[in-house]
Amino acid sequence: MTGTSVAAFPRRYGPWALITGASHGLGAEFARQLAALGLNVVLVARSADELQARADELERTASVRTRAVPLDLSQDDAVERLIAATADLEVGLLVNNAGISIVGPFLSLDPDFLDRQISVNNRASLLLARHYGEQMVRRGRGGIINLSSGSALHGTPWSASYCGTKAFNLMVAEALWYELRPRGVDVLGWQAGATRTPGFLGNNPGHSGLVPVRDARPAVTEALRALGRRPSVADGRLNRLGYAVMGMLPRSLAVRLLGRSMSDMFGPFPVWPTPDQTSITHD
To answer: Can you tell me the distance from the alpha carbon of 196 to that of 86, in angstroms, rounded to the nearest whole number?
Structure first.
C-alpha cells in the first residue's frame, strides 16, 4: 500500500494527519485513506457543513478521532488560526492539498483573485510546512505532501498563474526532501494529473478524453506509496510517459502543444476575454 508498511504508518506519520482542502475531491480521499491507516485527521476547508459531515463519516467508518477546522486559507490570519486550532495535537503528516485553479486568459484575471490564489496555493502551504516541519524534525519523524501538477513542468497557456503556483510547490517539496530527510522527515511533491473529482469534472465540460483521467482512490494510493521513497512523482504511468516525452521537446514546441490542448478542451480563448470565459475551481 505505502512506502512505509501499513502497520508502521501510524508510528511514522501519526498520530494526527492534517489535510487542507479536505471536504471533497483529492483532499477527502486523502482523509479517507489516512484514517483507514489508523491516523486521526484534522480536516481543513471553507465549508463548515461539508467538513463536519466528512469528519462524522470518518469517525463512524474508521473509528478515528477527527477535528474539523472551517477556514478560508486566503485570509491573512488563516495560518495563525489553524496553528492555534491544532496547538494541542501532534501532527505527524501534513497534506497541503488546498488550491485554487483557473482556466482563462491571464489578462482577464482580477488582481484580487491572483492574490488569493497565491495565498492559498503557496503562502499557506509554505508557512504550514515551516511550522509543522519544525515540530516533526524535533520528534525525528513525520511527512509532508505538497500537491503539485503536471502543469508545473512547462508553462501552460490559459493557466499561467496556476501552473506557476504548482511549480513553486514542486520545487519547495523537492528541496525539503533533501533538507529534512536526514532528520527523519519525508517530503513529497506529488504531481497530480487530471482526476475524477467534482472540481475537475465541473470545470472541464469540453474534456476531449485525450488526457487520461484517474479516479481519486488509486491516485491517492500511489501518492502515499511514494512518500518516503522519492522527492517527487507524477501520478499515473500514462502521465509519467507523457511528461517524459514533453521533456524531450524544445520548450517552445512543448508550450505550443499545451496551448493547443487547452484550447481543444476549453475552446479558443481571445487574449482579452469576456468575464464568462474563465473557469474557477477551489479545491
So the answer is: 31
How high is the mean pLDDT of the chain?
Answer: 88
First-to-last alpha carbon distance for the chain, in angstroms, is 25
DSSP 123: I
To 10 degrees, the CA torsion angle through 25, 188, 41, 185? 180
Phi, psi of 196 (to 5 degrees): -75, 80
Burial class (CB in 10 A: 0-12, 13-18, 19+), 95: buried
C-alpha 155/C-alpha 253 separation (Å) is 11
Query: Which of the four pLDDT bands, split at 50, 70 and 90, describes residue 195?
Result: low
What Å distances lie between residue 251 and 154, 160, 255, 264, CA to CA?
A: 8, 15, 6, 20
Structure confidence at residue 202 (pLDDT):
46
125 forms beta bridges with none
* pLDDT recorded at residue 171: 97
Helix (H) or strand (E) holding 93: strand 91-96
Distance set, CA 264 to CA 170, 204, 253 (Å):
27, 11, 16
Report whether the peptide linkage leading into residue 15 is cis, meaning its omega lies within 30 degrees of zero: yes
DSSP 121: I
Active site residues: 162
Cell of 142: 513525520
Residue 283 near residue 97 (C-beta atoms within 8 A): yes
CA torsion, points 96, 88, 73, 157, in degrees to nearest 10? Answer: -10
Q: What is the reported pLDDT for 203? A: 47
- pLDDT for residue 278 is more than 70: no
Query: What is the gyration radius of the CA atoms in the chain, in angstroms?
Result: 18
Question: Given this model, what pLDDT does residue 214 score?
Answer: 75
Q: Is 76 exposed, middle or buried (0-12, 13-18, 19+ CB in 10 A)?
A: exposed
The predicted model scores a pTM of: 0.87
